[in-house]
Amino acid sequence: MSREILTSAGSPWLLLPLLALSACGCGSPDAKFLRYEVFALKTEQLNNDSRFSREQRENIDEVMQALYGTPDEPRVPALGEVPIADVLDLAKLQLAAGPVGSDEVGNVRGLYREHCAHCHGITGDGAGPTAAFLNPYPRDYRKGWFKFKSTPIGIRPTHDDLKKIVLEGIPGTAMPSFKLLPDLEVEALVHYVKYLSIRGETERALLRASMELNNDQVVLPVLAEGASPEQKTFHDDQKVIVTDAVAQVVGDWTRPAEVMTDAAAEVQARPEMTPAELAESRKRGQALFYGFAQCIKCHGESALGDGQTTDYDEWTKEFIGDGKNLQLVAEFENAGLLPPRHIIPRNLRLGVYRGGRRPLDLYWRIRNGIEGVPMPAVTMKLGDDPAAKGLTPADVWDIVNYVQSLPYQPINNPLDAAREVELLRERM
Amino acid sequence: MGRFWSILFLLVPVLGVGCFVWAMADMWPMQGHWLPENINDHGRVIDNLFLFILVLTGVIFAATGLAFFWFLWKYDAAKNPQPVAFTHGSHTLEVVWSILPAGTLVFIAIYQMNAWADAKMRRPMLPGPDGQMATQDDIPKPSTCEVTGRQFEWRLRYPHSKPENWKPGDPYVYGDDDLYVVNDLHLPIHEEIVLSIKSQDVLHSFFLPNLRVKQDVVPGMLQHVWFRANKTGVYDIVCAELCGWGHYKMRGRLTVESRADFDRWIAQQVQAQSQSSFTPTPTAAE
Questions:
Q1: pLDDT digits over A182-200, tens only?
Q2: What digits encode the pLDDT tens for the residues B100-116?
Q3: Could you report how far apart the first and last alpha carbons of chain A are, in Å?
Q4: Using an 8 Å Cβ cutoff, are B154 and B147 in contact?
Q5: Do A269 and B276 touch (CB under 8 A)?
Q6: What whole-number distance in Å separates Cα of residue A136 and Cα of residue A130?
Q7: Are A118 and B245 an interchain contact pair (Cβ–Cβ within 8 Å)?
Q8: CB distance from B286 to chain A under 8 Å?
Q9: How many CB atoms lie within 10 A of CB A215?
Q10: Is the pLDDT reported for residue A28 higher than 80?
Q11: What is the interface pTM, i.e. ipTM, of the complex?
């Protein structure tokens, strides 16, 4: 057969494969949400390595698609009383979803794939095609955790927090600014990021719920005609479990609105200071930096961010723990985890602030801590008890003042530093 | 058949010149394909150089194309039955076609020197301690803004510290209260602007098409560009050097405005950057 084709160079049959090729085109296949493999593996390991059955995984795929749709046709789950529309706006999601392009009237579509997906991935798993080249890695939204926000650790970010990151970018990382996009497009992207977060968190919940079942049970079975009463009860029970899980995920995302209207969320303006007072404040801040607040533990005595350099963030630690078990690391890398990278504390002498350089941003970082990384919230003094241990807002401002002065200290300049070292030697 | 090909080759100079003329006439479908509006007082020189070289190369291009056509037409095999005669070089001809282009290149090299020096070497100066311009102690005009290219955005830093003996109207210097902005460059009109250009990662090229300013941004090098904008409005900043996969989206926005508007904008940005209080509102989440 092959000889025939080879010898009959002019045969019109030769055109057939070419025609077939041109009919298929060379476009990419439809975008698909990827399974949360690393979390499935984690769940299996937590349950003595009992494996999910194929039916269980496929059932989760179906339930996820029923709830959230596809990358081209997003869907917002109907939850009855839970006000999901406060968090996710379907019209905006549709602007951000789908392939890059515009519709007949010229409205843009596919904003997420145009601007975000190459790093954050179609699924929001932080593992897009360019992710592996970046340090730090792009955020995996599926855990629902974000670092730079106004809310305390454990509370989801507010809409404005996410929007600020999209607008301003994150200096010191690969996240650029999208300031010049029209407001509607930025809004659409923020809604889509929340959508991918909520979707990912739901998948986690479903995987966990599925693991609690027997291997032959799926998390939400399809109720066939003539199902037995037991099957019907099981189906109804499972439906409640799934709906509750989604409601809880969405509920977490509606909470920032309450938390941030709480009086405790208020930040009093930094006290106005004369240069002499500012110098005093910085001294007090320095004492706290090296003392009670223990900033030096990670940021180092030099504040160059070299106090510890071997820790990992929670997006990594969740799966590989301290990273010493190389077998475990390899298993998760096979499941899609990017090669683990250490979380490096900020070098405070560079004057590059990832979460923003307003005094308010620095205050939030110190008071609230940073979600998912070793940076803890400081202990704040509650009430008026003078014996209580903790920092007052004024103390936090002292630390902010000290931290803001670090990039401008003369010792940062190599020439001046040489002189300071000389002076130190003379004193010794 | 032979003459058909010569007509086809005639289309090369005709279409080549036609494209340019069409774009210059700003006619459909070539609208907006000619040079963007020039808003730089010093930009005319660059445009004139461009046009001069375009006309020069255009004439040679058209003449060469026509000569090719003429030979193809005249010596078509079908119309010339007699055998081909070969010649063995013409010394005069070779001297002419070596000296003419060489002379032209030397002319261009000399003719553009002043424009190059103005654009790249003669940075605007300020009077030094003696208060006189064009004396030995003149100092280079400090930059209005520092532009740092990085994949894939333009980070801007405006100096906001007052030096010792600062008087109203004096420039600010860089210090611990600089203003940081991203992608949104604002500049005053009718003032000699100096920008410092840096890169944080790889090669970029800082390009202001409307100001006829383009400067490669080289990691580790501090460079300067200068210009004087003469029309208010909003213009593009683009990266003109392939700098990575996101090169095409490395765009910024330049707003040229009156001094008063510029000062107001700076004050607004400074205030936003020094925000230290936060008041919870019921609408904080949405």
A1: 999 999 999 999 999 999 9
A2: 999 999 999 999 999 99
A3: 92
A4: yes
A5: yes
A6: 12
A7: yes
A8: yes
A9: 13
A10: no
A11: 0.86
